[in-house]
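User: Please run a holo structure prediction.
Assistant: Happy to. Please share the sequence and the ligand.
User: Here you go; the ligand is coenzyme A.
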Amino acid sequence: MASALCLRLSSTFAGGLSARCLLNSRVQRTQFLHMGRTAFGAHDAAFEAAKERLNTLKEEPDNNVKLQIYALFKQATKGPCNTPKPGAFDFVGRAKWQAWSGLGDISQDEAQKQYIDIINGLAGEESPAETEQAGEEASSYKEIKVTKENKVCSILLNRPAKKNAITWLMYNEIVQALDDASKDDSVTVAVITGAGDYYCSGNDLGNFMNIDPKDMPKMARDGKELLRRFVTAFIDFPKPLIGAVNGPAVGVSVTVLGLFDAVYATDKATFHTPFTELGQSAEGCSSYVFPKLMGNTKANEMLLFNKKLTAHEACERGLVTEVLPHDSFQKEVQTRVEYVAQLPPQSVREGKKLVRDQEREDLHKANEKECEVLEGRWLSEECVRAIMSFFTKKARL
Ligand code: COA
């Protein structure tokens, strides 16, 4: 039964994808390149250079990347999206509108920066030597952005058009970024935050799409192993890890917060773990950490009965350290991070190790067990049906 459902799921999604075939031609690309010649912000020269560079790419970026480029361009030159949502049958217009409005209220300056990074990343893939010559830092990350400054490693979940849903690639990139930050002596603290209006919408449900039914068990096995490695990277991260929850958080992005050393949330953030609605089960060590933090009945309310918490509720339950006003969120978080960054790093690491060692073994056990259960869940009819329902509802919109 699960196999049959899976086939139907794939064909529905394929239809959705073809509707999203946009900005396909070089002509369209050039059109949006030349829209709004005037750019605002602190990176004007680099922004102009990135626009020219986009025109010289040999390979067409895929549609998702093109959408992201389009959205960032609009945000950088016009500011937040305030045009009406296009009608249901204007698929291209709707996709573009969603990508642009998905950036929320990020500043024009930040949009310019992200635009420049994407184009330079694409150009760097085609010609790494050229990028280095231009004196730009070549980044190997595609779906996150990692910056290191003043002892702070910032990891930005960077798929704003998809509410920063975590693809298989993004899981791997986060693991790699944490590993790199843990080994880099210039880094004393790491911060994770999200681009756009969401912190993160959890596991990308597309990870389960377009899989041949005969390959489902392998997908579930590989997914289990990747999730195990992902959560392990959080359990064993040796330096202070701070979550800057800039908007709503869903699924695994909520559960792993229990493994952070401090979590700051804007008052617009929400915390939702709709596992049973999706036929799935808890991960990120939440089956162990959440009852300890908030007691069994409150943990069950989240993990079994899908209650979405406000930032203040999450703070009362010990999942969030402090709730900060949305308007001054970045600044307030920065002040707290800078304070941690200037503390004697070895002392902080030893302190963290003392606390973590109390329960490290239990956390690893919980992680193993949760991943095993999830492997089975991903193959269950309940889960396949729930994911199919998510994408068919979207296709009908
Ligand atoms: N997996 C795959 N795609 C996701 C996603 C996810 N977890 N979260 C968001 N997206 C995609 C949407 O499909 C949409 O894509 P489209 O533009 O190609 O249609 C895009 O991101 C924007 O999301 P949208 O649903 O239009 O925004 P919204 O503000 O109406 O709703 C959410 C945002 C997060 C509430 C909604 O997308 C959602 O429920 N996502 C699923 C969350 C989830 O269940 N995660 C797993 C938990 S275990």
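Residues 266 and 327 are 8 Å apart (CA to CA).
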